[in-house]
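Hi support team,

I submitted a single chain yesterday and got back a structure, but I'm not sure I'm reading the token output correctly. Could someone confirm the output below corresponds to the sequence I sent? I've pasted both exactly as they appear in my results page.

Thanks,
R.
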Amino acid sequence: MILQAALDLCAERSYAAVTMEAIATRAQVGKPTLYRWWPSKGALYLDAMTERVGEPYFLIPDTGDLAADLRTWVHAVTKVFTDGALGELLAGVVGSAQHDPELASILHEQVHIPLSGRNRERIRAAQERGQVADLDPYLLEDMLVAPLWYRLLITGQPITPQYADMVVNAVLSLNPTPTGND
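Hi R., thanks for writing in. Yes, this is the structure output for that exact sequence:
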């Protein structure tokens, strides 16, 4: 009930315009109730977003075909980023985390570390099968999603399925240069 009230308010106004007081009023609870469960508006919205979006959108699937799996994953992230309400909400939460150390910690510990860890495992497995360049899995994951984040948070340029395909194709075409130890 509270999370839905928060999502409804964000859709009607904007993330920046919604206050904890407005959420409490819409959900018909007191502000202390909100603060008992969430330390900030950003933390509340992170829970609402996580409940609405779910992990599958942020995990690389493993069908054995890495190119297809990366395309599926990057397209799923693109879909979340381009959903008007969700994209704005995601940008708002990430923006709030820049000024809210507690939210930044929650985002890092409860979202980034678990999802990224599983994605890196998927990338390592693909590397062992020779499906992708033998680069640092952190770097490969970053290379796949950073262009999408950049467009969402900085440039405002469209994040299209075609752009997502271009990103995946560019990453898959990488051939790491020898380190001199060969």
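A quick pointer for reading it: The two ends are 60 Å apart (CA to CA). Let us know if anything else looks off.

Best,
Support desk
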